[in-house]
Amino acid sequence: MSEHLLQVDHLSITFGGLRAVDDVSLSIDRGELYGLIGPNGAGKTTVFNLLTGVYKPTEGIVRLDGQDITGHPTIEINRAGIARTFQNIRLFRGMSVIDNVKAALSREFSYSSVDSIFHTSKYRKVEKEMDKRAQELLEVFELGAHRDVLASNLPYGQQRKLEIARAMATTPKLLLLDEPAAGMNPNETAELMHTIALIRDRFDMTILLIEHDMKLVAGICERLTVLNFGRVLAQGETKAVLSDPEVIKAYLGDADN
Amino acid sequence: MQSFFTSLVNGLSLGSIYAIIALGYTMVYGIAKMLNFAHGDFIMVGGFAVFTAATTMGLHPVLAILIAMVVCTVIGVTTERIAYRPLRGAASPLAVLITAIGVSYFLQNVALLIFGANARSFTSVVPWKGVNVGGVQIQGVTIVTIITSILILTLLQLFVHHTKEGQAMLAVAQDRGAATLMGINVNRTITLTFAIGSALAAVAGALLCSAYPQLTPYTGAMPGIKAFVAAVLGGIGSIPGAMIGGLMLGVIEILSRTYISSQLSDAIVFGILIIVLLVRPAGILGHNIQEKV
Amino acid sequence: MTKLKRNHLFTYILVIAFYIAVEVMLRMGLLTSHLQGLLVPMVYYAIVAVGLNLCVGILGELSLGHAGFMCVGAFSSALFSNLTKETLPAAPRFLIAFVIGIAFAALFGFLIGIPVLRLKGDYLAIVTLAFGEIIKNIVNAVYLGTDENGVHISLKNAMGMGLVPEGKVLINGPMGITGTPRNANFTIAVIVLLIALFIVQNLIDSRDGRAIMSIRDNVIAAESIGIPVVRYKMLAFTISAAIAGAAGVLFAHNISTLQATSQYFGYNVSIMILVYVVLGGIGSIRGSVVAAMILYLLPEMLRGLNKYRMLIYSIVLIVIMIINWSPAIRSWREKTFGRKGRRQEA
Fold first, then answer.
1. With contact defined as beta carbons under 8 Å apart, do A166 and A142 qualify?
2. Domain boundaries, position A198
3. Nearest CB to C217: which of A95, A104, A119?
């Protein structure tokens, strides 16, 4: 009996009187491409923050691969297998493209501080392996040629890809993408859709994404949860959810697409 | 007992000066979201302005203070415009802090060039000898200082809560983005904040130098830092907090100096800062602000 | 060899070349005794600057209290040297003094780091300033002496120690420590500088360094990729303090009377070193060394301009900060000069 990879039950959080996320439940299976959508302010990023330990929920349980990770610190949740990108890109702007990825390989390719300071043979060995893996990862995202470019000097679309590459470097089980297509033109969005599908297939990845771009959502998401005012409005197969009149009404009240 | 009472009164007086300085600090921090490290040196500028106007040019003390307020306001507003505004939205918040340190150095060294390093003897702006309460002589400048700070606090509170500009300040302090959307001119509001803060620094300078009549280019630095401690103690961004913090700090400093040691009184004052930030970082009347993820 | 490694190698070569040049000038009698006296201070300020840049440029935290760590390193090592100056030969004594000075500075860095590193940037700066002042004030208030009954301490005055008349006063309150053997010389100072460079540059080019820089650039993102933020902040801060402590040891063994005055250990010194770091380029370790040496030497050599020195520094500081960090000016520079201009920090 295969469990859901991510099981969220009755997740809620209150901010000083405001119930920002209210009784949200969903489950995601291995290998799924799952979408979290809803009008602005519906609580989508808050859900991400709850799942990744940035906030502690006031109620509810989050289980990853059967393991209870509710309210655990971000670092532990990343170790358990969730990685994410951010609505406003959070790259390490003062570091090169490849160093952004190497920073994320820190846990897997490890050596002590003594090795760091004295550049021992263990340091050299692990650094070489780390460089190889980082380069491979960059190639997947077609960033290999830019490895020494300062992250902040990359064009916008490639910055977003780098953020995803960095998240992938932590070998997660579940990848959370927060509005990965924000600010992209149709060409870039199409390329992004291709990249996301590639990640899912090549790395056997399960992906949960927040998006406003309905073309992207309809194009790659298999199932959706729609949030409105912090509550689940609709859930299920993408096509069915997107034609749900309640969902359409919620979006018409939000002058977006 | 008499000496305790004297120390207490002196502490309240020093604390009032800290409070006036802290008010400027806290307003700038709450509204412009920056720590004006040079604020203490605005006090020194005010002191020298009063000195030049009153002692060198022989003008009436009140006129001298008004002139000093104008001078400080001009310098404060110019500093904001030239050195701080360009750095709004900089990648690192350290940038404006380091620049403020540069401004502090600049002001100190200009004063050094103009007035030299020797301490000037400051003629008090409060020539009143004071009163005698139960055998203890309370200096006139002490009483005037305490009353002035209460007056300033009251005026500020009225201004902030009952005028359009004051309300604009509160809005910008809460949420700059929203304030802009509501049509508030953020640049003008911040400029006004610096103007008021600098004017207050001038008053504080006049009173500080009247109570402690040795004036050098470095006179403002330490009181400035201690006033920041006071602002943090009371809750940074809170006007009544600055008052409470200032008074408490002044009393603690003077009592420490009297009963423990002059050397260690500074250590104790700074120790308080550290304890407050560890135990209750928001200060007595402040609130915590979370970063948006 | 990577660009970074080449960059770092160049720094070592620069320092060694500088050392050789100075030694040659010394042998040829080209240096006045005044200049000779400046050699060791020049180097230990470079050392503190390197340590501070690790904290400000690599970790991204503004410490205004590094003079306090110098003070700790200076006094702990000087106390040891004075205690053992009759019993131990110079070489091992100085070496142990170094270990003690660095260890105490690191300890203070660690203890202070625990509460301080969780504070926001502005607060952290003022609290480190506060700690620096506290350390200086307390050291000034310490009276320490030994006699046949052991060690005595008082925080009030020399009498309070209760020393027997034959007893020896080691730390005389504000009068400090006198008679520390002057073991520091230019060669040793340069060796310490090279060691500091070795540690910091190697650290930067490593997994630990990348972790530290990721914390500087974006704490929340760093957490999201599993970086233990507190651990690395403490590591960087403690090493930074230890390096300042090493400079303090050199300082203490290069002066006949060691006093915890504002001139040597007050926050103005911390700020001066920050000026060196900023003018040398935040994040550029080589820049810190060069700036510290030149900026320290300059006023001593251009006595005439000395009046205007600090004024010029302050103006240059403000201008550099605005040019490098103002969003408006940066985008103007990008439009005019293109994006290639900026290289990776460190």
1. no
2. 1-81+172-257
3. A95
